[in-house]
Amino acid sequence: MGSDTKPSSFSGPLVLLLSAILLGAAGIAAGMWLQSERDTNPDGVQLSSADIGFAQDMSVHHEQAVLIAQTLSRDVDPQIRVIADQIVVAQTSEIATMRGWLNLFDEPFTTPHPMQWMHGSDHAMGDQGGAPMPGAASTSEITRLAGLRGADAETLFLQLMIRHHQGGVDMAEAATHAVASEPIRRIARGMIRDQSNEIAVMTAILDTRDATPLAHP
User: Fold this and answer.
1) How far is CA 212 from the centre of its chain?
2) Sign of the torsion formed by the C-alpha atoms of 41, 107, 164 and 81
3) For position 45, what pLDDT does the model report?
4) What are the contacts of 26-30 at 24+ separation with CB within 8 A?
5) What is the pLDDT of residues 60-117, one digit of tens each?
6) For residue range 170-186, what is the model confidence (pLDDT) as tens digits?
7) CA-to-CA distance for 178 and 92, rounded, in angstroms?
8) For residue 136, how far is the Cα from the chain centroid?
9) pLDDT in tens, 13-22
């Protein structure tokens, strides 16, 4: 006798949550390796300017992803709420990991010259109020999200987070070529994999709502 049971609508978000847990574990392992190597040979393990810049800027980029997810109202589709909550958990963990690296090497958590490690350019906000980092939302977009409820909030959240993740993938891909530390390079590759998976899930959901992603870049 055949079964008509459909896959749970939560299966995609739960897979993403598992991936986030694995990436967090990899980040902890990388931090432990850096700590061990520095304890063994204090003068032999250093972070390059790209290592430092990536950790600083991706931490700030992640902070906005957490803000967007937390700005989304609670009374939304449970599937989208799971995705938002997973992003909060995963990216908060990654922020702690990256700032742990910076703290280990006595580096500041932020820089007055963001994004200079990537393409040697400064993506600082210009006179027209452009986003300071790839894929970042503007203040007005986040304010608009805060005022929406229901389906309108869900659609804007998906659009903002897809674009934000696309920017994060751009940064992580640049890091795989720019950083000097292999553990940090592996973490960047994990971010590419996991955020690309999240983009695919969110884009599929957005498509069911007859909405399209925002332009990027």
Assistant:
1) 21
2) positive
3) 63
4) 26/186, 26/187, 26/190, 27/93, 27/94, 27/97, 27/98, 27/187, 28/97, 29/183, 30/97, 30/101, 30/183, 30/184, 30/186, 30/187
5) 999 999 999 999 999 999 999 999 999 999 999 999 999 998 999 999 999 998 999 9
6) 999 999 999 999 889 99
7) 24
8) 11
9) 544 455 554 5
Instruction: Give SS3 for 198.
Output: helix
The pLDDT of residue 66: 97
Nearest Cα residue to 73 out of 154, 182, 140: 154
Q: What is the pLDDT of residue 217?
A: 77
103 to 64, 71, 109, 174, 198: CA distances (angstroms): 21, 29, 8, 23, 29
CA 128 – CA 125 distance, rounded (Å): 8
Tell me how crowded residue 77 is: count the other CB atoms within 10 A of its CB: 15
Sign of the CA dihedral running 157, 88, 142, 188: negative
Q: Could you give the CA distance from residue 162 to residue 200 in angstroms, rounded to a whole number?
A: 9
